[in-house]
Amino acid sequence: MRTVREIMSAPAVTTTAGESVAAVTARMADKNIGSLIVLDDQSRPIGIWTERDFLLFSSQQVAPDTAKIADWMAIKNPAVLDSHEEIEAAYAKVRNAPHRCVPVVEDGKIVGVVSKSDLLEFASISQVESPESNAAPKGLSGVVVAETELGDVRGQEGFYHYRQYSAIDLAKHLSIEEVWYFLLNGTLPTAVERSAFLAEIRSLSVIPANVRSMLSQISGRAEDTELLNNLRTAVSFAAQAFDFKPSLDIDRAELMANGIRICAVVPSLIAALYRIRHGLDIVEPHPELGYTANYLYMITGEIPDPQFARAIEQYQILTIDHGFNASTFAARVIISTGADIGAAMAGAIGALSGPLHGGAPSRVLEMLHAIGQPESARPWARNMVENGKRIMGFGHRVYKTHDPRSLLLREIAIGLGGELMELATNVEKAIEEVLSELKPGRELYANVEYYAAVVMSRCGLHPDLFTPTFASSRIIGWSAHILEQASDNRIIRPSARYVGPPAPQPLPN
Ligand SMILES: CC(C)(COP(=O)(O)OP(=O)(O)OC[C@H]1O[C@@H](n2cnc3c(N)ncnc32)[C@H](O)[C@@H]1OP(=O)(O)O)[C@@H](O)C(=O)NCCC(=O)NCCS
After folding, report:
1. Residue ranges making up the domain that contains 23
2. Which of 36, 63, 108, 166 sits most deeply, having the most CB atoms within 10 A of its CB?
3. Rounded mean pLDDT of the chain?
């Protein structure tokens, strides 16, 4: 069994708490390192000084040659490892530590340093003998690429959760603002916190004048452009107008404020873009309505039916987060480069726009219209599958049983009633039967988008708004993931196996 001693770097670059910021920064630059270990007078680690501390320090206009690092160091009493510890156990011990480099000690005194990523690499190499088998499966299916406290999807059980609570329970019992607050802060809001958060979101829902003036240019004719693509461009403009700074240069509080700001304005942007493309005047946010009711109000100009508002709100809660889906991963990849949150959000919207991810619900509606009546569902589905086509709103990468979101949305759809719901429940059954016959063993069931289309349509949302409405809630999940990624960041930069012609070859004359 390999121990930490075998992979640590020694000697560690260290300093003492009394040293000045200027001296320590010079040493880091000289050694080309991003952090160093702070020791007490008996060589025991008492903290870690990082580049992030320096960035925060630099924004305060204090003289670096007199400031002591002890007064500015964020990580005190760091996790340490004994040099004799076995690598996998060591990794398990420190993987949640808020610092990347871990001091290694013998008898409590520093003898070296090891990075969490080295521990992880050596831990997994000892599990996976052949380098060939390090290749990830296509689509990264089943590959664990990060650790998260934000939630998980258990595909075999048909269960998912936000932090420690079932997402379904949250959708049944809480408002979207409460779930949003919970996801960001890790605790459910008290009554006072809830009203303060509501007031904050309301005040941020107004579109800045310089973005508003651009919207008619961004917006295209409904038949020519997807509303979600308009939104992507509008989010870029808004991020620029808000003057978001690179995430690398700001602290968690500022990044969180940026996230709340962009999330709060997105429903207003969607509604405004929708109204412009339909030749209508923009409706200002309502001063009293909650997030979802206000969204519907800005779309129609009328106070929404509370049953419809609650149905859409529950849909939004259900879709805030869902594991490492493509758009969430895209957001995390972009923020891992230190880019600003607007860049990450615009990239994530791009990922969401694909029909294999978020672009399916309007296609579900088209499908239901094309099928028209329950009796046509079987031959229609058979024809699609036999011609190698995919049926929109069915199948899922992770769920190999019923999608819990789809089950709750079906309940909501049944509560709302209507002809489309009648058709949808019959068609669902017929399609699932055809899929189980023609694709045996694949476990293909209706996914979230199937009943999302039914619910949104019943609540009066135009199909143009389906995927943007999905974006209006998923953006909250993206912001939580962005914060998590930034708080313990390493640039996400995997590798690929080159399979082209052998290189180098001479250039043609
Ligand atoms: C969601 C989705 C992209 C997951 O893809 P995936 O995990 O890569 O699944 P695979 O492509 O490996 O599919 C496994 C098998 O099921 C089939 N399959 C999956 N979804 C299907 C669908 N909706 N209709 C018909 N067949 C489907 C595939 O053709 C494949 O069959 P094969 O083994 O004969 O090749 C996929 O199910 C899909 O395209 N669904 C339709 C689009 C949709 O509803 N998207 C919204 C997702 S929330």
Report:
1. 4-126
2. 36
3. 92
